[in-house]
Amino acid sequence: MWARLAIAHQSEHQILTHAGIVGQVWRRPARQARVAQALKGVDVRSLTVELAQAAGLLLAATGRDDVHDAALALVCEPNDVLLTSDIDDLAALLTERRMSSVGMIRV
Question: Structure pTM?
């Protein structure tokens, strides 16, 4: 994963996520140097009430249950590439959004 992030940082592609995803990986600040470094070049979007509500609607439409995955599927734009360990859930969420051009790489 770290190598993929390094390549993405060096490219012209924008890297984005939302704050809930940061919360899923941030555990012990003293041991998070790599995560902190990786986040320096990432556009971390707020998990606003509006995004959370839209995520809830997307979850209801798909029968899935992870609000962070749903919010991530909602901030995606056509032709984005997701680095994820949850390809099955994100595929269902992206299909519901008709975002078949979004790629996914398992990490």
Answer: 0.81
